[in-house]
Amino acid sequence: MRRERPQSFADYTPLFFPGLMLIVFFVVPFSTMIAVSFFKRDPVGFYTRDFVFDNYARFLSTFFGGVLGFSLLLAIGVAVCCVLIAFPFTYLLTQRPRRVQTLWLVGLLSVLSLSEVIIGFAWSTLLSRTAGITNLFVWLGLMEAPVALLPSVWAVLTGMVYQALPYTILVLYPALVRLDPTLLEAARTLGASPVRAFLNVVTPALRNTLVATLIMVFVFALGSYLLPQILGRPQHWTLSVLITDQAIYQSNMPFAAAMAVFLVLISLALVGLTLFVGRRENAG
Amino acid sequence: MSAFLRRLYFTAVALFLAAPIIIVAGVSVNVKQDLSFPPKGFSLSWYGQIFLDPGWRQALFASIVLAITAAALAVAIALPLAWFLWRRIAPWANVFQILGLAPFILPPVITALGFLTFWATAGFYGQPWTAVISHAIFFVTLPLVTLSLGFASIDRALVEAASTMGADDRTVLKTVVLPLIMPYLVSGYAFAFVLSLNEYIVAYMTVGFTMETLPIKIFNALRYGYTPTMASVSIFFVAIAALVFGLIARFGDIRRLLGALSSDGN
Asked: Using one digit for the tens of pLDDT, what is the confidence trace for B83-124?
């Protein structure tokens, strides 16, 4: 059946239900949130209608600047770690037989679908003194006594890398699995070692993919809302944690909304950048 | 030599990914109510607790009902949309595709807060069904992506043949298109189901104070009192995810779903 332009109004019927649902339950909530960011806080209810910029003005404090700076740095750290681990790994994975690939993909998807609550719980157990990995080291005779490795910024970083690593691998997978095999053959025929071929041929060929992946993982890491809370100290809280905290525990929905709008703007700018980088790759 | 290094690298990544799960599995078989590793004794009673303890059983039930209905609603939204985009040339309709992808790309806190403000303003805050709609919108991306892949893989000549033989749109849809995209529909449902089961922040911000899903229950236990049941539930969830994705891999082409083949069907 060829694709046709809709002939009559009736041809649009399939669009009604999805369109209605997405507008009512995504566009409207989103707009509500933007509106609420200009409202005033109501200590007993949710908010009072108003039009003030107070919630945005609060961004201009050193505390907020610190949180923002820390969130961005942490997300950059996570993105860099993940891509450094995932890129060679995914490359090697795509060289393996189909069966091995399928097995890994099932495992990666299972870890990726894990609730952030479960990841947080699992890592807080793994890094704890009573049930942690240090008990294993003591048992092996490597350490004197078990110690707690959390809360610390390293625990937060490790947990977030754990959360984002399967995502990174799955984002890189299509690009690497579709990589032109003749590129590599040519490099090998000309006498390059596998490592050299990877570094000098595969990596430059996928430069833009790598940049796009870095940005996507960065946005993914910005969204982590529980791990900094479970594995870190209050000074390790990120923007996402702060939004949850303001909305739920401080009952300051307008301020939470203002921060969320701000986070949307950062994310959208970065996603736009990804699309731009991706387009250049396809064009060039 | 390089094969050895590769194996070492794969093992290291596998260990990193498996380590927390192994520890939690160890904790979950402790005999007494303490979270120690290596476990003291061996007992599966904490797995029994998931079903025997009323609190955990209710949370499990709430989570499963939520996941089943939300995933169904997500597919019901995604299917007509993907079909329309495949069947018709209507560039402006791509706006809906972008709307369907957006909740998944943006940080989840934003979608969650959007729902919180929306349901609070509409006056339905805390109703169980609001979580179903919220999850369906939040996860509509997954069936939308798998179904788009499915439609793209259909050989248009097959459909052409059916309509030349006199089948109308409805018959073509029922006898040719639906059977062809069924595997993609099932995987889309399965992805949405598993993720909804594990989702915390949207559920928490919509019904967190009136209903406990399993992730909310685990989080509350994390704050207000540890019990090995948290560990057994976590392992139970890992097992469900592995089972579902394993089934998809067994009966479908998971490599294709994850982009191993280009979307034009080559």
From this structure: 998 888 888 888 888 888 888 888 888 889 899 889 988 888
A24: contact with B, CB 8 A cutoff: no
Kindly report which listed range (A91-95, A112-116, B38-42) carries the lowest average pLDDT score: B38-42
**Mean pLDDT, range B243-247, rounded to an integer:** 91
**What's residue A87's pLDDT?**
92
Is 3.40.50.11930 the CATH number for A62-283? no
Angle, CA of B259, B262 and B266, to the nearest 5° = 130
Q: Which residues of A touch B180 (CB under 8 A)?
A: none
**Domain boundaries in chain B?**
1-43, 54-257
Answer whether B150 touches A (CB < 8 Å): no
Mean pLDDT of A219-236: 87
Is the model's pLDDT at B261 over the cut of 70? no
pLDDT confidence tier of residue A160, bands split at 50, 70 and 90: very high
Q: Where are the domains of chain A?
A: 62-283
List b or e across B139-149, with b for residues whose CB sees 16 or more CB atoms inside 10 angstroms.
Answer: bbbbbbbbbbb
Q: Which residues of B touch A125 (CB under 8 A)?
A: 20, 23-24, 27, 35, 37, 231
Q: Which fold, B54-257?
A: MetI-like fold (1.10.3720)
Q: Which residue of A has its CA nearest to B194?
A: A113
Whole-angstrom Cα distance, residue A48 to residue A31? 16
Nearest residue of A to residue B130, measured between CA atoms: A25
Q: Which chain B residue lies closest to A123 (C-alpha atoms)? A: B20
Contact A14, B93 (CB under 8 A): no
B26 CB within 8 Å of a chain A CB? yes
* Closest residue in A to B2 (Cα–Cα): A194
**DSSP conformational letter for A130:** T
Q: Does B19 touch chain A (CB under 8 A)?
A: yes
Per-residue pLDDT for B266 more than 50? no
Read out DSSP for A134-194?
Answer: HHHHHHHTS-SS-----SSHHHHHHHHHHHHHHHHHHHHHHHHHTS-HHHHHHHHHTT--H
Which 51-80 residues of chain A touch chain B by CB within 8 A? none
